[in-house]
């Protein structure tokens, strides 16, 4: 094998970026691991893990009450009573 600096040869020289290549490779490895960890967290945690986080607004008590009334889970009297209780808080 011919080394860099030998007459007529190329060889390995000082490696990638002259000795600082290991720093670059370490940073690249950290970024890769962070991306994989983030993707796995999103894949296995599901949408419930993001409730209340930035970009995923959580439903207010009023919104939940409106949805329950719209689905027919509670009647109009209970809806009015609970809505009045929310307003008083």
Using brief descriptors, characterize the structure shown.
89 residues, mainly alpha, 2 domains, 3 helices, rod-shaped
Protein architecture, described:
The model has no long low-confidence stretch (mean pLDDT 77). The termini are far apart. This protein is mainly alpha-helical and 89 residues long. The chain folds into two domains: 1-57; 59-89, no CATH class. The chain is 55% helix and 0% strand.
Task: Return residue spans where pLDDT drops below 50 for at least 5 consecutive residues.
Answer: none
Radius of gyration: 30 Å
The total strand number stands at 0
- What is the structural class? mainly alpha
Strand content: under 5%
Helix coverage percent: 55-70%
Through-space gap between termini? 81 Å
Shape: rod-shaped
Element string (H = helix, E = strand): HHH
Task: Tell me the major beta sheet.
Answer: none
The residue-averaged pLDDT reads: 77
Taken together, the total number of domains comes to: 2
* Number of separate helices: 3
